[in-house]
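Our working data are protein records whose layout never changes between entries. Getting from the letters to the tokens is the skill we practise here. To make this concrete, we reproduce a full record directly below:
***
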Amino acid sequence: MRATCPLFLVRRTFGSCGRQGAAATPAAGRLLRGILRGAAAGAAGCTALNTVGYLDMVFRGRGASSTPEVTVERLSQAVHVPIPGSPEARRNRIAGLGPLTGSAAGVGMGATLGLVTAAGWRPGNATLTATAGVLALIGTNGPMTVLRVTDPRTWSASDWVADIVPHVAYALVATAVLKGLAPGIRSGSAAARGPQGRCEAVRLRLTP
């Protein structure tokens, strides 16, 4: 004998199924929330990346990299937008713009991940972490390579380790924060499938 799910109970618990339930969460609002969640995750990832980088400086006694500042100067020349001020003021502005561009890239990559997951992409933890790591590597090293600030083909093994480890930290933290802020992006969950999936889950649970 098949047990039936009273329609009023399903609607009271989960909202209307199908299009009416989906309409309760406008697509634009859902995507905006995804972008904001991703930006927060990217900011947390930037904090992890910078922390690992500073710890590397402490342990190995190395100096800070000058590539962010050189990248800003090359970019300024490429787009023909000079950095104003006296020589000292200009150096100070470049010193501030270097870290800012890195933070903007990290937050932007996190926002991108938040957008695509809010749009319906449901990766597993390993896939999402790997994607975040690859995006971080491309987002930071790509512009420097294009502007000929550095050439990864000439890097030593220690150079690669020093570059990859902070980006792995970014990926792990950004993924953890994004998953924590939006548990519904876990692949295969009833929440990820929306109201229709939840109603189906109730129907199956009540069917012997």
